Amino acid sequence: MDAAFSWILLLDASLRLATPLLFAALAGMISERAGIIDIGLEGKMLLSAFAAAAVASITGSPWQGLAAAVVISASFSLLHAFACITHKGDQVVSGIAINLLAIALTVLLAQRLFSLGGMTPILETSERLPVISFPQWVVHDDSWLSQLYWQLFSGHNILIYVVFIVVIIAGYLLKYSPWGMHLYAAGENPIALKRAGLSTDRIRYFAVVAGGGICGVAGAYLSIGHGAGFVDNMTVGKGFIALAALIFGKWHPVGVMFSCLFFGFLEALTIRLQAVTLANADLVIPIQVIEVIPYILTLLVLAGFIGKSSMPAALGKTNY
């Protein structure tokens, strides 16, 4: 039972750690399905994490913090769309600019507003997004069924449940709705879309801004859901890992979901291995080696370790 309980706790941690990756990867998927590269996921997550924590701290409302995160991230996505769609700018350069700006801007604003060395105040429970507890359908005991129900399924932050609903909705819309077909055409054959009398630019604008709003939820989860405030550079590369998960998942909602769960599991396992290393003096494994495992795998994925990816044919192309 101890081994089973350890696995349940590991899967529970995997869900918590995979949630921001999944929100960010879904945001990137929507943008890139329309043909616009979204390298700026990391920066938008960081900006929205700060906005959520700052507004929640000032107003005392986590919902206002969540709304602020969505608005901030969507606004920077609109700026990215303006540079890349209207002015045909380099999409990678625009995304990197957002990432660099976010690192400096969040620390500067946090110091100006709160004077805590680039942090926001620690949030009270009422200032964080709520946790959902399931009904008392299963008795609390040591059985595996009880542990699955109470440890793995119940007691998570509300956004953990929301993200899987978003996966279902995104999968349905992309496959069965006219909007999904237009989005697919914008990323695969914008010339055909234009000949059909539809505006590729308008569809791409909508996709980039909508993806920005979803990315804002990822940042809010980090600071007012999973965490209790904002700290300097708290995303620590999660936006880039989300990009790797997007490639790993072949730009498909279900594939992206499983790849994010895999990366979340890997991060949870890394934390568990650190605890084992610290507890066992005879096990000589530098903690730095363990900490770098998720990033090594990310590099392998981005380098094409998983084989040829079925990326949208018009991804990154604005001349049509």
CATH class value: Mainly Alpha
Strand order of the largest sheet: 1-2
Q: How many alpha or pi helices?
A: 13
Secondary-structure class: mainly alpha
State the CATH topology.
ABC transporter involved in vitamin B12 uptake, BtuC
Plain-language structure description:
The protein is mostly helical. It has a single domain (2-129, 155-302), classed as ABC transporter involved in vitamin B12 uptake, BtuC, CATH 1.10.3470. It is 70% helix and 1% strand. It is built from 13 helices and two strands. The chain has helices spanning 2-33, 41-59, 62-86, 91-114, 144-153, 158-176, 178-188, 190-195, 200-225, 238-248, 253-279, 287-291, 293-302; strands at 131-132, 156-157. The chain has a two-stranded antiparallel sheet. Helix 1 (2-33) packs across helix 6, helix 2 packs across helix 10 and helix 3 runs antiparallel to helix 4. The chain is globular and about 65 Å long. The N and C termini lie far apart (60 Å). The model has no long low-confidence stretch (mean pLDDT 87).
Key terms:
single chain; 320 residues; mainly alpha; ABC transporter involved in vitamin B12 uptake, BtuC; two-stranded antiparallel sheet; 13 helices; 2 strands
Which SSEs are present, and which pair or pack?
Blueprint: H1 2-33, H2 41-59, H3 62-86, H4 91-114, E1 131-132, H5 144-153, E2 156-157, H6 158-176, H7 178-188, H8 190-195, H9 200-225, H10 238-248, H11 253-279, H12 287-291, H13 293-302
Antiparallel strand pairs: 1-2
